[in-house]
Automatic annotation (TrEMBL):
This is Na+/H+ antiporter subunit A. Residues 130-429 form the NADH:quinone oxidoreductase/Mrp antiporter transmembrane domain. It is a multi-pass membrane protein. Residues 720-794 form the MrpA C-terminal/MbhE domain. Residues 640-703 form the MrpA C-terminal/MbhD domain. The chain crosses the membrane at residues 6-24, 31-50, 79-101, 113-129, 135-155, 167-189, 209-234, 246-262, 274-291, 303-329, 335-364, 376-400, 432-454, 475-494, 534-551, 597-619, 631-649, 656-674, 680-699, 720-737, 775-793. Belongs to the CPA3 antiporters (TC 2.A.63) subunit A family. Residues 65-113 form the NADH-Ubiquinone oxidoreductase (complex I) chain 5 N-terminal domain. It is found in: Cell membrane; Membrane. NCBIfam families: 2a6301s01, PRK12645.1. Keywords: Antiport, Cell membrane, Hydrogen ion transport, Ion transport, Membrane, Sodium, Sodium transport, Transmembrane, Transmembrane helix, Transport. It comes from the Bacteria. It holds the Pfam family Proton_antipo_N.
Length: 807
């Protein structure tokens, strides 16, 4: 399974190579042709695992990363991760092919585009195939960073920058919340492995941290999958190029939150809290997205709210399906397994028809110069192929036959009807709202699907409102959405081929072993007789058609809602107040005075540390085990005090520097007396270097100004109070810490540095071996700072030469 690790690494390697390819080939050939082979070959490779996965096998691959802390790069492939892997690489291949014809190699910075895209693809593959939750978090945040770069690809546009910032702030906030949940989960289970965590479900359910850690993890999932109320970032992310929207916001990034919920269902499922939060937020998001989609006049904004709605549908199905973990698998509970199967099925279906629709909208924008529905109309005569693809995608989204969306929408109706009949979690009273809300949301889904097709391609052609005459797109832009539209139809007629080889293995990943041990027999079919679900669909079509025909008569109701209380307005005002508040506070203490800064820092130290010492049992003194103080130590202490006072009263910088150096050398003598020659040697070297540097720097400074009218040093009581306060607090803390040791001193571990690290110098061993990663990061930061300073100097010199040349 080493190839499983390689396929995750390959996109990152490609991200490094792409800039060089751009430099060599950009004027000759579109570099998208080189990038296209990467996801395509990975997709073909993943296809070879379908027979094994469908037979119930799983695959693992382990690379030790930080084995001491059980943090390893462990990969795990099962049915669920394979489905996501195929979506990431399959649709990724189509998106790259589409982008070759959508993005001009003459006008666009293609190297940036494909670098960001490869970073995102690698991060998504790493996320879905990782078993270690901390590694999942690393890839999770990497998807947020790379998506930020992709959304801000056209950074010269203010709306692109705004959308990128918004998506990053919300998803990064969710990621940090998720990390806190992961840490709490690892504390309970003593493992970072997802599979081992799932095996300790009973322990987790009975722990007092169960609810808070579940909330924290769900916040991460809800922010990434644009669930209410975190859904506001997705419409603004539509400022990205259409290939990005088709990839990130229909098939991959927003599905990461769905993946997380699905993966944690065996851990938290079967509880009322998980059931209500996941299904409740999902059904609310479904309604919110569908209602807001109808009012949009921008085609991509319509699809954005549509995506929010569809993600809510999938999320609600995962919540409803988790009820099977309460019952265990039997004939009565099998109806809830249908919900989980429908969730995975609709996830695949949504990726096909929504990816196709995004590409069609990109074609409309590319060939007419606008996405504004008010300016479009009558495009059927000019773009018949695009119209056909739009009909297939939109009708699938509306849940009409003969398209795959009809099958999963019927299964969704079945799930909510069954949920309303549950006799647990108080569903016998509130559960009736599930089918009602689902039906209302489906009506609005039907309406905006019809708007997308008939408002754009029907009606009167308006050439004067278009930036360029409408015409059909080139073949290269039509092939990717045509492939996805073909899958929409194929999955309708052959759903059980997909179910047997991909959906059921993925379903097994959502259920515990005692449930999956039973063979789950579920057959997907288009006809189930004249049942409740079919009548709900007929009602959706009838009422939806009436609402679409009368759209102009009731669309004005949206203006009744005050725009001042929208989630977007709340976000914008909250961000503005945070910025203004931060500026106000910063202006109070950023006075430009070093003395003022030191006062703030030391005052906080005195109040916080000093206040901590006042807590019950915080302070103690025990000198019974302390060594006696010798005459030499008293003499050195007196010398140190004299050196410190010399610094204060020195009338020249040279005297002050020499006194500071003397103070450092006296500290080195203390280390010698305490039998720490390594520390003494290090102290002597550091003190010598710093003293020399001080002398070099101060040599170039102006001399002290003699102020005859002032005699002596001006006395500042505040300085005295703060100095005494810091000294007292630090001393008391040191005494208390030495008197009440709760653990064995860590120094005993470092004494074995020669055996552990082969180092005779303990200080060097600590810096290079024991603190190796920390030291490396410090050096890395200094390197970045040095490069920044060097760059600024070079830029200034270049500008000076340019100015001199102009003169």
């Amino acid at each position: 399974m080493v190839w499983l690790g390689i396929i995750i690494l390959v996109p990152f390697i490609a991200a490094i190579i792409v800039p060089f390819l751009h430099k060599v080939f950009n004027q000759k050939i579109h570099i998208g042709w080189f990038v296209l082979f990467i996801p395509f070959l990975i997709f073909i490779y993943l296809l070879t695992y379908i027979p094994s996965i469908s037979a119930g096998k799983t695959f693992t691959y382990l690379v030790q990363w930080i084995p001491t802390y059980d943090i390893n790069f462990e990969l795990y492939m099962d049915g669920l991760s394979l489905v996501f892997g195929l979506l990431i690489t399959g649709i990724g291949s189509l998106v790259i092919f589409y982008s070759i014809f959508y993005l001009s190699k003459e006008r666009e910075a293609l190297h940036n585009f494909y670098v960001y895209l490869m970073m995102f693809m690698g991060a998504m593959l790493g996320l879905v195939f990782s078993d270690n939750i901390l590694v999942i978090y690393v890839f999770w945040e990497l998807t947020s960073i790379s998506s930020f770069l992709l959304i801000a690809y056209w950074y010269q546009r203010q709306r692109s920058r705004y959308g990128a910032q918004k998506s990053m702030l919300i998803t990064i906030f969710g990621g940090l919340s998720m990390l806190a949940g992961f840490i709490m989960l690892s504390i309970i289970t003593d493992t970072y492995s997802m599979r081992e965590i799932a095996s300790q479900m009973d322990l987790i359910h009975g722990h007092e941290l169960f609810f808070p850690l579940m909330i924290l993890i769900l916040i991460g999932a809800f922010t990434k999958s644009a669930q209410f109320p975190f859904s506001i970032w997705l419409p603004d992310a539509m400022e990205a190029p259409t290939p990005i929207s088709a990839y990130l916001h229909s098939a991959t990034m927003v599905k990461a939150g769905i993946y997380l919920v699905a993966r944690f269902t065996p851990v938290f499922g079967g509880t009322a809290e998980w059931f209500w939060l996941v299904s409740g937020i999902g059904i609310l998001t479904l309604l919110y997205g569908s209602i807001n989609a109808v009012r949009q006049t921008d085609l991509k904004a319509l699809l954005a709210y549509s995506t929010i709605s569809q993600l809510g549908l999938i999320m609600s199905l995962l919540g409803i399906g988790s009820a099977i973990l309460y019952f265990g698998y039997n004939d009565e509970s099998s109806v809830y397994a249908i919900a989980s199967l429908a969730a995975v099925f609709h996830l695949v279906n949504h990726s096909t028809f929504k990816g196709s629709l995004f590409m069609v909208v990109g074609i409309i924008d590319h060939e007419t110069g606008t996405r504004d529905i008010r300016k479009l109309g009558g495009l059927l005569s000019f773009m018949p192929i695009s119209f056909t693809l739009a009909v297939i995608g939109s009708f699938a989204m509306a849940g009409l036959p003969p398209f795959n969306g009809f099958l999963s929408k019927e299964m969704f109706f079945t799930a909510v009807v069954n949920a309303s009949q549950l006799e647990i979690f108080n569903m016998e009273t509130i559960g009736v709202l599930f089918p009602v809300i689902a039906w209302i949301a489906s009506v609005f889904t039907f309406v905006y699907s019809m708007i997308l097709v008939f408002k754009t391609f029907g009606g009167k052609y308006k050439p004067k409102m278009l930036e360029k005459p409408a015409h059909e797109a080139p073949l290269g832009m039509l092939i990717p959405p045509a492939i996805l539209a073909s899958l929409v139809v194929i999955f309708f007629f052959f759903p059980n081929v997909l179910a047997n080889y991909l959906l059921k293995p993925a379903l097994a990943s959502l259920l515990p072993e005692e449930v999956t041990a039973v063979d789950i027999e579920m057959k997907i079919s288009a006809w189930h007789g004249w049942n409740t679900e079919l009548f709900m669909t007929i009602g959706v079509v009838v009422i939806g058609s009436i609402l679409y025909v009368l759209l102009k008569k009731w669309i004005g109701l949206y203006s009744v809602y005050p725009q001042s209380v929208t989630l977007n307005r709340l976000y914008d005002s909250g961000l503005a107040k945070m910025e203004s508040g931060a500026k106000t506070i910063t202006d109070q203490y950023m006075t430009g005075s070093l003395r003022a800064y030191m006062i703030y820092i030391f005052s906080l130290l005195i109040f916080v540390w000093g206040g901590a010492l006042l807590l019950p049992g915080a302070f103690s003194i025990d000198v019974s085990n302390d060594a006696p103080v010798s005459f030499y130590e008293v003499g050195i202490m007196g010398s140190m005090l004299a050196a410190a006072l010399t610094v204060l009263f020195a009338k020249s910088r040279l005297t002050a520097i020499i006194a500071v150096g003397a103070l450092g050398y006296l500290v080195a003598i203390f280390f010698v007396l305490f039998r720490a020659p390594d520390l003494a040697l290090t102290q002597l070297v550091v003190e010598t270097v710093t003293t020399a540097l001080f002398l070099l720097c101060f040599y170039h400074l102006p001399k002290f100004k003699k102020e005859k009218e002032k005699k002596g040093i001006p006395f500042k009581p505040l300085n005295l109070i703060i100095s005494l306060g810091v000294g007292t607090v630090v001393t008391l803390f040191a005494i208390s810490a030495n008197s009440s040791r709760m653990f064995e001193p860590v120094s005993s571990y470092f004494e074995d540095s020669y055996e552990l690290a082969g180092a005779r110098n303990i200080v060097n061993a600590i810096l290079v071996d024991f603190r190796g990663l920390d030291t490396m990061l410090e050096i890395f930061v200094l390197t970045i700072v040095g490069l920044g300073v060097y760059t600024l100097i070079k830029l200034r010199l270049a500008r000076r030469e340019k100015d001199e040349g102009a003169e």
